[in-house]
Amino acid sequence: MTRFYCFSTVNTPYEAVALKCAASFGKHGVIVSLRSMPVVGGWMRNCMARAEALRSHWMGECPDDAVCLLDADLECLGDPVALLDFPGDVAVHDSGPDVPNESRYSAGVLAFAPTPEGKCILSRWVDLCAGDKHFGKALREQLYLREAIQEREAQGARVFRLPRTYNMHIDHHKDGDGTVILHHVVSRTLRKVMGGSL
After folding, report:
1. Which CATH number characterizes residue 121's domain?
2. DSSP letters of 14-29?
3. Which of 16, 20, 43, 122 is most buried, by CB atoms within 10 Å?
4. How many CB atoms lie within 10 A of CB 141?
5. pLDDT class for 195, splitting at 50, 70, 90?
């Protein structure tokens, strides 16, 4: 069983965005647990805080289930079966190959299995985000995710690479392209309006 979580910063427009996300998944029989987070700094710091928030809820509520982290600005257009039962320790969209100082794995649709390696990858990601040393660089939560995944994959962790259709960027979406999860990228406007909140 996979538990789905979506985090949004409290008392911000993202709460309404997250409600739409949850409703779209609900149309396909998937319950998304919405959780509010305090604003802890700029946009990227709020993004990175989701790693610890996810781990806390996972260990406190459902440590024997898989968990999936969803961006607030997603829309589910089809049955997300690949996230319900995936053959790996982590399931993630991989845009590979590696490019120095660039993100590779998306944190927008990301699932962890209740295995020692799954929990280790998430904990390592939490630690890297907490020790952030690249202040000011965009998308560094994804750089840390790449580091955490690749460290453990080198030790035998199983990485299930989600199809592109599970995190289809709005700029690349076309009707009838089989998109399962559409990413609307509302941060383009909201992080400016809100002074950098998640």
Report:
1. 3.90.550.10
2. HHHHHHHHHHHHHTTT
3. 122
4. 22
5. low
- What is the residue range of 134's domain? 2-193
- And the tokens for 112? 């962890």
- Look at residue 198 and tell me if it is in a domain: no
User: pTM of this prediction?
Assistant: 0.93
User: Is residue 139 domain-resident?
Assistant: yes
Q: Is residue 73 in a domain?
A: yes
Any bridge partners for residue 94, and if so which?
A: 105
Residue 197 has pLDDT above 50, yes or no: no
pLDDT 10s digits, 120-173: 999 999 999 999 877 767 778 999 999 999 999 999 999 999 999 999 999 889
The alpha-carbon radius of gyration of the chain (Å, integer) is 16
Element (H, E) at 32: strand 32-37
Q: What is the largest CA-CA distance in the chain?
A: 43
Answer whether residue 61 is part of any domain. Answer: yes
Domain total in the chain: 1
Q: Look at residue 112 and give its three-state secondary structure.
A: strand
